[in-house]
Amino acid sequence: MAPSHLELAVGMAELFEEIGVRYVVGGSVASSLIGEPRSTVDIDIAVRLTAKDLDILVDRVRPTFYVPESDAARAVREKDSFNIIHNEGALKIDLFVLGDGLLDVNQINRRVLIEVPTQPLAELWITSPEDQVLRKLDWYRQGGESSDRQMRDIIAILTINSDRLDNTYLTDTAALVGLTELLNTARQGAT
User: From CA 35, how far away is CA 28, in angstroms rounded?
Assistant: First the structure.
């Protein structure tokens, strides 16, 4: 039987911990855990991954996953993304190799450890609500500001976490990366 998205995320998290790779779960899985639950077709995980780490990862996930090794090696070199696909059920994990940009550094350094509600004793490092908002705003901008789904996720995170957000950090970081106007629009939608 194919694992669920959360089971797969937890399994990958445990593997990353074992091999010493810093990771943070983002995307729809993190949004569902800190915002509004919704279905997803993949799992987004940002990682600090070297070529040596990649070799270990590939060895450990075979034969459970299909790994396009040339794409993965390129992603590590260029600080880009690649995916691995679970052979049973074809669930896809998008791995985003983090670079040195402000959003990348903050996403991994400000990650939050949470208990997985449906799995006793399971924990995941997820993107903080503030960094999830910033990441999704950045994706929204890169996508031509046309994804209603991204904006709904952003507004849900802002609304559900309104009493816990570090608004100073959110405002200051948005200004540094040119997202102030989009953040203000999202905040208006959250009121």
Answer: 9
104: its two tokens: 């990348």
Spatial CA neighbour of 55 closest among 37, 67, 39, 63: 67
Contact 31, 131 (CB under 8 A): no
pLDDT digits (tens, 9 = 90+) for 35-88: 666 666 789 999 999 999 999 999 999 889 999 999 999 999 999 999 999 998
The closest of 79, 178, 94 to 138, measured between CA atoms, is 178
Q: pLDDT for 110-129, tens place per residue?
A: 999 998 888 878 899 999 99
**pTM higher than 0.70:** yes
How is residue 101 written in tokens?
Answer: 């940009």
Q: DSSP character for 81?
A: E
Contact call for residues 153 and 35 (beta carbons, < 8 A): yes
**What is d(CA 77, CA 43) in angstroms, rounded to the nearest whole number?**
22
Contacts of 22 (CB under 8 A, 6+ apart): 16, 47, 48, 108
| Domains of the chain in sequence order | 5-126 (3.30.460), 129-189 (no CATH)
Amino acid letter, 144: G
